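Input set for joint prediction.
Command: fold jointly, output tokens.
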Amino acid sequence: MRLATWNVNSVTARLPRLLDWLAAVEPDVVCLQETKTAEFPAKEVGALGYEVAAHGNGRWNGVAVLSRVGLTDVSSGYPGEPGFPDPEARALGATCDGVRVWSVYVPNGRTVDDPHYAYKLAWLAALTGALTPEVAAYERLAVCGDFNVAPTDRDVWDPKAFVGATHVTEPERAALAGLRDVGLVDVLPRPLKGDNPFTYWDYRAGMFHQDMGMRIDLVYATAPLAGAVTDAYIDREARKGKGPSDHAPIIVDF
DNA sequence: ATGCCTTATTTCATAAGA
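tokens >
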């Protein structure tokens, strides 16, 4: 199976690129984040053979799972999911050919003194609680998406530039450790160029071209699934050219 | 080369992203 995850920063704005990318990469299952629409273009991706499960409310957030190998047991959100104040469209689970897949878009957090930061930590803690029985129930499970946390200092272009900022704080990294503690493994993708496994580069100031990025998109898989991985890479080609997302897709073969 | 913000909306300004 070829599994991919991509924060597309609006599936509407990215649709032509998404369709070209699907045809070129031919993933079996795709987790999307920041779809930013209540009306997912299911017909267009359906023409390429994909079933769609989408969870979106409009302008912000939005997640989806596409599959050409079956799509059952769809869960929008998870039990006990925190909100701001109401739950947002940030998590979607589905079973595809026996693999349990979650597409997640973790709250940004903004700044450490912002209420959104506490919301982010609460959301990650509740996600971990909701996934614990899923990890027990499904031998092959992957949580894919934009976690908005760089797991280590090697996952940001310059740790000094992030002192005091979100995405690198100890509590955020501890939240990721909590996910690993319930049995999930960080599937580290290889970069196609250079040594940095970044998945996100800000649109501004030529950050991509200087490789000033971050690894905040992650694939967390159960050990049996992680052990079956034959390749995992970051498709930086998708970050190039006219009208890209600010995130690159991660592609995992197993 | 890879090229210097982008998105949807309560649209000509704003909030959010990270």
